[in-house]
Amino acid sequence: MSDSTDDCNFVSPTCLVEDTVYGYTPNLGGNAFYAIVFAICALIQFYYIFRFWRAWKTFSVLTFIGCCGECCGYIGRIFLHKNPWDGAALPIQLVLLMVSPSFLAASLYTTMRALVRYFGPEHTRLPERFWTWPFVTADLVGFFLQCGGGVVAAAGDRIPSLADIGNAIMIFGVSFQAVIMLVAAVLTVDFAWRIVRRHVSRVFADLPRDLKIFLLAMMAAFLLILTRCVYR
Q: Given CA atoms 68, 73, 78, 79 in this order, what sign does their dihedral have?
């Protein structure tokens, strides 16, 4: 371990990779892959914003913002691959990769009320009007906690004690988001189970193909975001 890293800007005999925040050089191929994937998803959602403005504008806008944030976050990690001591890339990728999933989770919440209307509000324990905005609001709380924690942690370069405080705030924000997602997951499973119990499994088998794909994609995205929250 080097004696002092306060003035480190590049990897050198006195500024080791092991002394950086991550302690390693981020993988170029993996981060480039995710940056490209999210860039493509952002472009698709940008098209959908105009193509389905009346019906899906909120969903598409939130997904577009989330994908742009993820893309820029992984680009930040690509810069860290080039220079693990890059003082600008570190907070950018840290904050963006921390908060961008909040927009993706919020976009999923916006579809829940529409699904309740489609399948019938009689199948849910939660009133229809509470299926979107309470979860979106809670997600925003988690988002601002993560943003605030990131700002405080970034000030840790000047005041070391703030780094731990900022990290604690960010972890609390992510944990809060995970709890909200778990609540939404339990209510959604209960909603699906009530539909199956009343109409047998054919109700899902008879759904339009596009809706089946959409529901499966929603489920996969939800599980991946939840896994990310737990891992964080």
A: positive
| 139 neighbors 177 (Cβ within 8 angstroms) | yes
- Residues whose CB falls within 8 Å of the CB of residue 167, separated by 6 or more in sequence, listed in order: 149, 153
Contacts 24+ apart (CB under 8 A), 37-44: 38/67, 38/68, 38/70, 38/71, 38/74, 39/67, 39/71, 41/67, 42/67, 42/68, 42/71
DSSP 121: G
Q: What are the tens digits of pLDDT across the range 210-228?
A: 888 989 999 999 999 888 8
Distance from C-alpha of 171 to C-alpha of 145, rounded to nearest angstrom? 9
Q: What is the mean pLDDT of residues 26-49?
A: 94
The gap from C-alpha 9 to its chain's centroid, in whole angstroms, comes to: 30
Task: For residues 142 and 163, give the distance between their C-alpha atoms in angstroms, rounded to a whole number.
Answer: 19
The span from the CA of 66 to the CA of 97, in Å, is 9
* Residues 155/146/165/80 CA torsion (nearest 10 deg): -50
Q: pTM of this prediction? A: 0.83
Residue 122 CB coordination number (10 Å): 10
**What is the four-CA torsion angle of 83, 89, 95, 100, rounded to 10 degrees?**
-90
User: Rounded distance, CA 109 to CA 222, Å?
Assistant: 10
